[in-house]
Amino acid sequence: MHIVFLELMIDPACTLAFENDAPDPDSMRKPPRAPDAPLVGGAALLRAGLYGLLALAHVVGAWLWACAALAPDAARAFAFTALVGANLALMAGRGTWRRPNRMLWMIGAGAFTALLMLIYLPALAAVFHFAPLSAAQLLLAAAAGLSLTVWSPLLELAQRAR
Which residues, at least 6 apart from 142, have a Cβ–Cβ distance to it below 8 Å? Predict the structure, then answer.
């Protein structure tokens, strides 16, 4: 069920939000890709791997803290909230902070609304084995995942500096 929920968040982002994303303003000034060049180069794979490791570190850090501080079902809800936040941060890190994408904001709001229902509606919480979080715990968990957005501009600056 956890994976299904993540898919219900990620798939609309790919099909609705990213398809509606405004093109890069410099796209027509850049030369075309060489016909023999790979579609996804080594730098893009390295960047994707780095973002994945950073997201993993954020979520595992949240999980470890929650396991030490909360009951198991609350720790599960805490870590899942951090994971949802990290996924939304990865989606937003694609330059959305420079070029706003209304559809992505709608998907993010819908994902967090659904997450709140999973945590606070007893019938849904039972399916996911979640326990309710306090408001402070919920905010901390969301911040643990969403703080991943800090890395995107920093990594972009580092790439430009090279």
Answer: 81, 82, 84, 85, 112
